[in-house]
Design goal:
The protein is of the alpha/beta class. The protein is 45% helix and 20% strand.
Length: 165
């Protein structure tokens, strides 16, 4: 296992312990990471105690059908927006038995970027059953793999911060 993979494994383990200690289950809604968060979360033995399910919604249609993202949100703001990330996280929460959900949607590259949303732009959402919701945008550098890896690292780090707050 590479050092980068070991780091993601340790972070996932820490998130899992924090979820378990609070009696919470996690659902994920991923676009540009293609299920990578779900993969690293389920690498941890016993993850079925705190990882409930994952949605990989790469297209507009899948975001609408599986997560209930409104067509108007996608048309007005695009898939790569905090509005869409927030709707994805809330949709994952509503369509699962989890108490916590996160989402990732972005432009991993190498193509697909625009002046407003260059390659490396990634939007994140976190929703909690207690009503806490948060969304943010980051811009990462590097190739497609680097953008995706940084996205997984960021969303889990921010989730852990929110769980420990």
């Amino acid at each position: 296992m590479s050092l980068e993979d070991q780091s993601l494994y340790q972070l996932s383990e820490n998130v899992g312990h924090a979820l378990s200690a609070r009696g919470l289950m996690l659902a994920t809604a991923e676009s540009c990471t293609g299920g990578w968060v779900g993969q690293v979360m389920t690498m941890i033995p016993g993850s079925s105690e705190w990882y409930e399910r994952g949605f990989v919604t790469y297209t507009y249609l899948s975001k609408m059908e599986m997560l209930g993202v409104q067509a108007a949100t996608l048309e007005r703001h695009g898939a790569v927006s905090e509005y869409t990330a927030a709707a994805m996280a809330l949709g994952a929460l509503e369509r699962s038995r989890a108490q916590v959900a996160l989402s990732i949607t972005g432009v991993a590259g190498p193509g697909g970027g625009t002046p407003d949303k260059p390659v490396g732009t990634v939007c994140f959402g976190w929703s909690f059953l207690d009503g806490r919701n948060h969304a943010e945008t980051r811009c990462f550098s590097g190739d497609r793999d680097a953008v995706r890896r940084q996205s997984v690292q960021h969303t889990l780090t921010r989730l852990l911060d929110q769980l420990l707050a």
